[in-house]
Amino acid sequence: MANMTVASDLPPLPVFEVRPMPDLLPFISDFWLSLIAPHIAYWAVSLVFHIIDVYDLFPQYRLHTPEEITQRNLATRYEVARDVIIEQIIQIATSTVLSLTELRQMTGMEDYDVAVWATRIRLAQRSLPSLLGLLGLNAASISKNMAANHPFLAGALAGGHYPFLGTVLDAGTQVPTFAAWELLVAKTIYWLIIPGFQLWVAVCFVDTWQYFWHRAMHMNKWMYTKWHARHHRLYVPYAYGALYNHPVEGFVLDTLGAGIAYKVSFLSPRLGMWFFVCSMMKTVDDHCGYKLPWDPLQHITSNNAAYHDIHHQSWGIKTNFSQPFLTFWDKILGTRWEGNTSEKYERTREAAATKTAKDKKAQ
Questions:
Q1: Distances (CA, A) of 48 to 8, 161, 296
Q2: Per residue in 294-320, pLDDT tens?
Q3: Of the ranges 144-153, 164-173, 188-197, which one carries the lowest mean pLDDT score?
Q4: Cβ atoms within 10 A of the Cβ of 9, count?
Q5: What does the pLDDT read at residue 4?
Q6: What is the pLDDT of residues 30-70, one digit of tens each?
Q7: Are 287 and 241 spatial neighbours (Cβ–Cβ below 8 Å)?
């Protein structure tokens, strides 16, 4: 031990070597996967609801009857599918441009970044004795009294002093190491809190962008007539009609908003891909036409299929503008539907059933 020297009172940061992050799947690059994954998710979720719809598997959870779909919608399923594919082509083109502005995502520096956060946590502990002193507490005395039974708590109270933690490098230098709890907190910050905050920023931006553009398209007669009225030809929404829009509306409201959200939240390309996939699945689910008690996407927030369906009805068209995640703008600005909807839905069901019956007699 005589030839050992103490390098610093802080644990050294690990060396690292960056390298391109391997593709998520072995048979396709992340670049191409990011372009097509949201649309695969769109049609996969839509197919599930289409099968439920065609075979009438859960009639008790329908928001509308099959007669309503036939009688009230003003666009054919072919027109809907055609316009959705056009919008998806625009989205893929936009995503291509967006992806080309990003550098290749790298890996290899994760342990270093975690260690940086652990260092910040260690440095933050140095303020504890002073803070406790403001409360009239002697941090050194408290630390000394609990050192035998609670050494890590004692070390934190002493200002991040852990003399029992250390290791010896190959060169014979003794260096301190991080406590397990410091690394756990650092990993939680790096792997959960920071990505979670970035996703929260992206979600809030998308909701804000879509709320005000969506509301503007209802308040401005020209924008409604030229753009948004097409989406409202579906009085009875169904899953794959979620992106049934005028191309201009689809680009401004959905594609551009999501792209800016990705940029301002500083999502990584990999995390951005998951954000776009989840956003697409949520949009489809919001138009599925079912209030399913076991559908997790309908319970994450109050903005779900039942909530958005109200907006598609003639009596609720000036309410429930929020989409696709949260409802806070409707609550803040007083555009959330208030009141019972059961009687209104029942009247539309009866009217559609009566018209269907008349049509059959006429034949």
A1: 60, 57, 15
A2: 999 999 999 999 999 999 999 999 999
A3: 164-173
A4: 12
A5: 38
A6: 999 999 999 999 999 999 999 999 999 999 999 999 889 88
A7: yes
What are the backbone dihedrals phi and psi of residue 175, each rounded to the nearest 5 degrees, phi first?
A: -130, 150
> Buried (b) or exposed (e) across 251-265, using 16+ Cβ within 10 A?
bbbbbebbbebbeeb
Share of the chain above pLDDT 90, in %: 83
